Amino acid sequence: MTPFHLAFPVRDLDETRTFYGEVLGCAIGRSSTTWVDFDLFGHQMSAHLRPQAAPAASDGKVDGIVVPIPHFGAVLLMDDWQRLATRLEARDDIDWLERPMVRFKGEPGEQATLFIRDPSGNALEFKGFRSLEQVFAH
């Protein structure tokens, strides 16, 4: 698998470093006074300073549940997803949009999912699958 790259807006680089580095456990890469790179489960995420950026709206729907559009995150194997979910649930400073749950239970593509917001209002989804072969199952 090759890494994915995403550049996204943030309102404050210090709070972004704390959230992605300490809360999510991302390694911090190169940076400047206007951006910082993170390793989000092997993917290059570049946070760019944009103080006026607006949070995502909750206007999408998946499996009957409203989800924010746009959002980004990572697809993980179930053990890694469970470790992340446990890490986040142990904190009292997480802005939860959707607590850990299983979607499409008993169907092709069954997945665990959770949604959170970072301090800039960016919506993140983390999905967990028992097998990566299920990611595109239908």
TrEMBL record:
Residue ranges the record marks as coiled coil: none
Domain VOC: 2-129
One Pfam assignment: Glyoxalase
Protein's name according to its UniProt entry: VOC family protein
